[in-house]
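Reader question, answered in our methods column.
A reader sent in the components of a multi-part assembly and asked whether the whole thing could be modeled at once rather than chain by chain. We filled in our standard form and ran it. Here is what they sent:
COMPLEX SIZE: two components
ENTRIES:
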Amino acid sequence: MLLKILTVAGLSLAAAHAGATTISPGARLAANCAACHGTNGDTKNTANFATLPALAGQPRENLAASLRAFKSGTRPSTIMTQIAKGYTDEQIELLAAFFAAQKKATP
Amino acid sequence: MKRRQFIQAASAGALLASTAGCASIVGKARPQVVVVGGGYGGATAARYVRMWSEGTIDVTLIEPDAGFISCALSNLVLGGSRGIADLSLSYDALASKHGVRIVRDTVTAIDADKRTLALAGGHTLSYDRLIVSPGVEFMWDQLPGMLKSGAREAVLHAWKAGAQTVALRAQLEAMPDGGVFAMTIPPAPYRCPPGPYERASQIAFYFSRFKPKSKLLILDANDDVVSKGPLFKKVWKERYGGIIEYRPSFRTADIDAGTRTAVSELGDRVRADVLNVIPPQRAGAIAVQSGLANANGRWCGVDFLSFESTQAKNIHVLGDAIQVSPLMPKSAHMANQHAKVCAAAVVDLLNGRAPDPHPMLTNTCYSFVSDTDVIHVASVHAYNAEQKTLLVVSGSGGVSTGPSALEGRYAMNWARNIWADTLGA
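And here is the structure of the entire assembly that came back:
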């Protein structure tokens, strides 16, 4: 029995290293945001166009609260109200958790 | 640099783990993905397959051009507020930061059974999965006069950004004040639905500042403005009232390049000092030649869960070349989004998993109506399993209330971020 468990564990470890990479549901969903907010929320800004805060590394609850406020319309915006209405509350939680866990590389 | 070291470390780890755990994996070739075309769709797909496979899948990108020139924002070159250099970017980061092998060449044939493709330079490449992102090809045969010698040097399209954009700007600069500029718009679908109307706004902006006696005629094959219609028409009336004249349902059937005359199907003739022809379009040549364009011989049908061709297994098609789902525009933003659903599916399939059954996409198209002021259209699309297509999520999306400089700053922010996302910079 023990041998069997070890074998299975060994095989799955090998498989993982050999390329069985997984893509989380949050990562897939967050890729939708990258065109405006940067890859994995690492938003590119310059001094002249510092219009958007980076999503990467912001507290999860802040991100979720912002998205819910855009969705309900209580937070005014040009575009995010229209985008946020396309996502369920569960998807908003996935997005918030994903961006909160990312590191910001761009200063 | 850090990423490269990580990839090398990961590869070494893979080899060790394979040797220790499962000898059969040793010597097995790494999965090979080949991407055809380095526009917004293809470049993004190459980058995301590398990123999401954590470097375990080899990616080769075939692209004939040395660098990337953004079609998005290129109308600003015509308006005079940007130069082509502002839109010209490098492919280097895809190779140096993400390990994409870039081959500067053109694909001449695809063999779907053997899973190989032939390059103009003489090489043959094998693939496990092929991603074809060929953009659009112009259907010049629908405008016979444009097939004549010299016609396409005299009458420009500027619908692929680059030398044509710069040349059309030069024609505008050379035109005397009081001259007439005319542009023809093909029937939808074509690349970038709001693009022609943004172009009209940009050129009218230039005329309003420097050539106020000039006229701009929009000869539109469609029965009304295809995208952001009320917003564009309000801008034209309020800002460019004496300059722009919009003629809907002008179906251009021929062009006389020598006299710069557009001829409609009904025989109406419009002569201009500068004539800009946006021709009818279909999927890029390699997609048509290899039989992937199975929708009216023009566009490529795909399974929206994976963007795999409905015509050929192991071949995916992205971007402007596909037969779109309802209300899906042929835009740079959409191509970038197609690429991510496709890249995720390719990584899933090469790891023996089914693709995500609930893919989603967003779209945002910003249009500049002056050097600073911008309007947008946005939408969110989700997969519908019953209809097997992507549908706009009910209640999502919309347009601007009116042009604003704030949206102008958002538009530049969009450009900076989508360029970095697409090119891995």
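What stands out: The longest helix of chain A spans residues 2-17. The CA atoms of residues 65 and 85 of chain A lie 14 Å apart.
Send us your own complexes using the same form.
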